[in-house]
């Protein structure tokens, strides 16, 4: 152990228990998120439906809607990212110790934040498209298409639920990485107080 | 000063300078955000265009598109919220001292996070609608409407830019409130180290 390192048992049992719960929670969330993103990609990426309309064969696929393409790409990237991060957390746990420095914490925090906002934006845009497909927008002369492609729309709906749950997991993970980063800037050195005065 | 409070000068000059910059940055961002959200509401809420199409009078307004209604409501709430928060920060600065406790930090952090994600989701959904209005979606038989209502669409575009900038400000503010909250959980008591070892 280098001179700059502080063993965890000096922080007291409560802090150690919090550390442990945060670490386990982070691993579980990252792996759950990886699975949910992969499910979203599979559900939406493989979704097709063929209909015969006046002897014309019409095929619905996710590439017809740019928002769904964006959703599949974002979920694919998020799935790979959370797998790598989950493995990193697992390795750190099994090795029994983690060297945690500000640069690494900043990198993880930044990537997590970007991923959370990207996933949420992709889900919001895809949901807007889904609502338009389901209900149409009479003021714009945009007709409903889901009454023609019911099976296709249902599968997109399942993908959206899965992606929404993934983005909730990502939001929670980004809280944890913010916690891991910003407590390194703790001002309460030498005391266990919960309040302090800032003079400006 | 109560016994639990720690005067800022005991943290050293560097920490004090960081404190000060964070506080000033927070006030500026909150007031800028309040203005940007108000501008968005004004731009989109007052946006109308009347066209004569085959002797029929057609009027475009923001309520024709649910995503724009959601955007205006979210920006209205965010504008009021950031005004209140900005005034709170200003009062705290002019009074010269802030009593900062975990409960208040958690409340501010939670509200800021919810607001950041809501604003971003609203902007993403409205942008998706705007892209559909501008380019149409031929696969769905959804026609472009912006070539009919050019002035209306341009004003919505300006509102979207303003709202996007507001959501970037809100994201930055939510970083600051995460910083303000989680450093209260700092483990580095008694040392100025930047790395530590966690044993599990």
Determine the CATH topology of chain A.
Butyryl-CoA Dehydrogenase, subunit A, domain 3
Instruction: Please report the first level of CATH classification, the CATH class of chain A.
Output: Mainly Alpha
CATH architecture term of chain A: Up-down Bundle
Number of extended strands of chain A = 4
- How many helices of chain A in DSSP terms? 4
Low-confidence runs of at least 5 consecutive residues of chain A? 1-11, 189-200
What count of structural domains of chain A? Answer: 1
Q: What is the rounded Rg of chain A?
A: 23 Å
Oligomer: homodimer
Helix/strand-derived category of chain A reads mainly alpha
Question: What is the topology, as strand order, of the major beta sheet of chain A?
Answer: 1-2
SSE string of chain A, helices as H and strands as E: HEEHEHHE
Q: Tell me the helix content of chain A.
A: 55-70%
Could you give the distance between the termini of chain A? 39 Å
Protein chain pair with the most extensive contact, residues per chain = A-B, 71 and 71 residues
The chain-level mean pLDDT of chain A equals 83
Shape of chain A: elongated
Q: Into which percentage range does the β-strand content of chain A fall?
A: 5-15%
Largest sheet of chain A: 2 strands, antiparallel
Describe the structure.
Chains A, B: One of its GO terms (cellular component) is plasma membrane. Chains A, B: The chain crosses the membrane at residues 27-46, 67-84, 104-127, 160-182. Chains A, B: InterPro entries: CASP/CASPL, CASP_dom. Chains A, B: Homodimer and heterodimers. The structure is a homodimer of 200-residue chains. With 200 residues, chain A is mainly alpha-helical. Chain A has a single domain (10-183), classed as Butyryl-CoA Dehydrogenase, subunit A, domain 3. In chain A, 64% of the residues lie in helices and 10% in strands. Chain A is built from 4 helices and 4 strands. In chain A, strands 1-2 form a two-stranded antiparallel sheet. In chain A, a hairpin with a 2-residue loop joins strand 1 (48-53) and strand 2 (56-61). In chain A, helix 1 (13-45) runs antiparallel to helix 4 (150-182), helix 2 runs antiparallel to helix 3 and helix 3 runs antiparallel to helix 4 (150-182). Chain A starts with 12 loop residues before the first helix and ends with a strand. The model of chain A is unreliable at 1-11 and 189-200 (pLDDT under 50). The interface between A and B is large, with 71 and 71 residues. Strand 4 (196-199) of chain A pairs antiparallel with strand 3 of chain B, so a sheet runs across the interface.
